[in-house]
Every structure is written in structure tokens, then in C-alpha cells.
Design brief:
With 108 residues, this protein is an alpha/beta fold. It has one domain: Rhodanese-like domain (Oxidized Rhodanese, domain 1), CATH 3.40.250. Helices cover 44% and strands 19% of the residues. A 4-stranded parallel beta sheet has the order 2-1-3-4, sandwiched between helices. It is globular, with a radius of gyration of 13 Å. The termini are far apart.
């Protein structure tokens, strides 16, 4: 039962993130957590680049509001999962891992 709830929640979170990206909700902070080089080769509209290794310290340059809506993505979803955990440990409450850039770029 718990596994089913987790799958439903994760599916809802990704769908929510995709809608925020699609609608270009400027109140939502979209962060590409890949390297500067990867970001330079292509990124989602309105996304800012903060590599996952720097997110703990650099997020404060973009928002200090712990209730900010934040969406993170990377190449495969691994680094964005790490970034989400780091942000959560630092008090950011509304962070969604949107997953892989390759899947997102074709939709948005």
C-alpha cells in the first residue's frame, strides 16, 4: 500500500512540475543542476543554472524564501534528486525533481 502511495505521489509531483514549466510560472524557480557546460549546450526556458555541487550555497542568491516553489532537473534525474535532498535539508519545502532534461526539452 505504501509503495502504491509513493508511486502516485511521485507521478503527481512530476506532472505538477511539468505544468509549471509549460505555463512558464515565473513564481516558480526552475533550476538546471547540470554543469555550466551542459547548461550552455541547451536548457529549459527560464531555467537558471546552479550545479548540484553548489546548490547549498548558491540557492540563497536566487531565493531565501524557504516556501518558494522550486523545480530541479538534470541529465538523468540523479543529480536533481541529490539537489532536492540538499535543498530539503536546508529548509526548502516545495522542491520537485522534474527528472531528465532530454524528456523535458521535447515537451517544453
Amino acid at each position: 500500500m505504501l509503495l502504491l502511495w509513493v508511486l502516485i505521489y511521485c507521478s503527481f509531483s512530476v506532472t505538477y512540475a511539468q505544468n509549471q514549466i509549460k505555463n512558464n510560472d515565473l513564481k516558480t524557480l526552475i533550476i538546471d543542476v547540470r554543469t555550466k557546460y551542459e547548461y550552455g549546450r541547451g536548457h529549459l526556458k527560464n531555467a537558471i543554472n546552479i550545479p548540484h555541487t553548489q546548490i547549498k550555497h548558491k540557492i540563497k542568491e536566487h531565493t531565501k524564501d524557504k516556501d518558494s516553489k522550486i523545480i530541479v532537473y538534470c541529465q538523468s534525474g540523479y543529480r536533481s534528486r541529490t539537489a532536492k535532498k540538499i535543498l530539503g535539508k536546508n529548509g526548502y519545502k516545495d522542491v520537485i525533481n522534474a527528472g531528465a532534461y532530454a524528456k523535458l526539452k521535447n515537451k517544453y
